[in-house]
Amino acid sequence: MSVAVPRDEHEYIYAVARVRVLETHLLDRATLQRMVDAESAQAAFNILMETEYAESASEAGDVYDFEKGLTAHLKWVYDYLASFMPDSFVLDLLRLRFDFHNLKVVLKAKLLNFEPNPGALYDWGTTPVDVMSSVVSAAIEGATEIRSKTLPEGLLECIKEVLREPSVREDPQLIDLIADKCYHQTRVALARASGREVLQDWVKAAVDIANMKISLRGSKLGMDKNKLQLALIPGGKVSIESLKAVAGEGIEEWLEFWARSPYSEALSKFVKTEKGSIAFTELEKWADSYLAGLIQRGRHLAFGPEPIVAYAVAKETEIKNLRIILTGKLNGLPGDMIRERLRDVYA
Amino acid sequence: MIPMSLAIALTALGGGMIGIAATTLLLKGTMGGLPIAIFGAALAVFLAGIGSSIGVGIAGEAAAGVVTEDPEKFGRLLLLQAIPGTQGIYGFLAGFMVMFRLGMFGGTIPSLTVEQGWQVLFACLPVGVSCLISGIYQGRVSVSSMGIVAKRPEESGKALIFPAMVETYAVLGLLATILLLLFGVKI
After folding, report:
1. Contact B63 A17 (CB under 8 A)
2. Which residue of B has its CA nearest to A13?
3. What is the pLDDT of residue A278?
4. Which CATH superfamily is domain B30-184 in?
């Protein structure tokens, strides 16, 4: 994750042209419908075998192992995109998520002295897990100067910040909160350095939505105020100071605060249907669609990295949809119930 | 990349003209118009050539990207890549026109007054500058149109129209230069 970011929008011409063709392989709504309407989970899985998922899906063998196939496919997507990208910046914006997830697992394992489950780690982040692991060990043992070349800046900062927190061993949830914060801050910095408006909008909205979820959780579960203040992420469009003032109050205050934000219109869509009470699943679905919608605005630009990010996001949405369908099918959910959980399709 | 090449080309144009003007003043009376006329012909060829190189270049990158994923689209993409190439030809045509008008193919080196030299040079500017800029922008439109071919091959015909629109201004530039050389410059 170098911070030396895109030099020129013309450097992406080749990559964008390739992505234009890849976009045509995205599954359309009709295919997803067919899967939802398939008579069994295996039949739905067989439909998947006719698409570009065939190779990854065959790795899974049968439908009960579909997760393996979807994971293999996601890894393939990132590897494939990386093979023709002019720089790592664009993919870092997306892959940092996996790095920070790995970092959380590694930090918890090292601080609480247990072996991390290899299944919980992704092997397609920007940094290999063993490198991360050794840096974390060194940092815990008190190495004052961690070699900064071995790990990207954002991850390094995150390790330092976690270790600065005195009560982190007693309360491992702090690791999650700090890592999430660092993740968003790293992304905001990357997007800012790129100078691309659509990307900046997108990562800033992601910060706001993360804050929305954190503050909602705080309101619903009555989270500790100090912890809440620590968890809220600066860098979004909504002022963090005013949010800190109301965070931890009731649902009413939460609704009132966000109704005054730039997201009021979008929020009103699902808050109304829930009559004032907000279900996390609803919020989650709205957030996914909203963020995907934001980045899809950059899809038709002919110059610049946006279409590549948009494609990767569309691909991740597609994989999420397949997971919803196949899980639903395996558990015998009725088609309508599966359908209402599906995210928008950008084929 | 593009604004920079534009800036370099236009600076070369301005710098060259100032240079010639200075030399003419310095060598008052001893320098004829021929070098100025030749500079004009050279300008027409190289400015238009820069425009086309950039245009065809970026269009080629996009075409290569699409063909990597879908080799079947080669034919349609080739056409789109070739469109920004015409500017270079127009520039060459204008340069050729100058040589022809000056009677260079007759074997004798013509003698021109300084005034005639400047006339030829200015007559070359419409094609040079319009082809430089339209070549670059036509290339950009071609790149965008390749997105149409990649995603909706059945609409390839429409994809061709957008870059073709830009061609108008290169043609007008060439036309102006030819008319100026034929009827504007008195030799």
Report:
1. yes
2. B62
3. 67
4. lithium bound rotor ring of v- atpase (1.20.120.610)
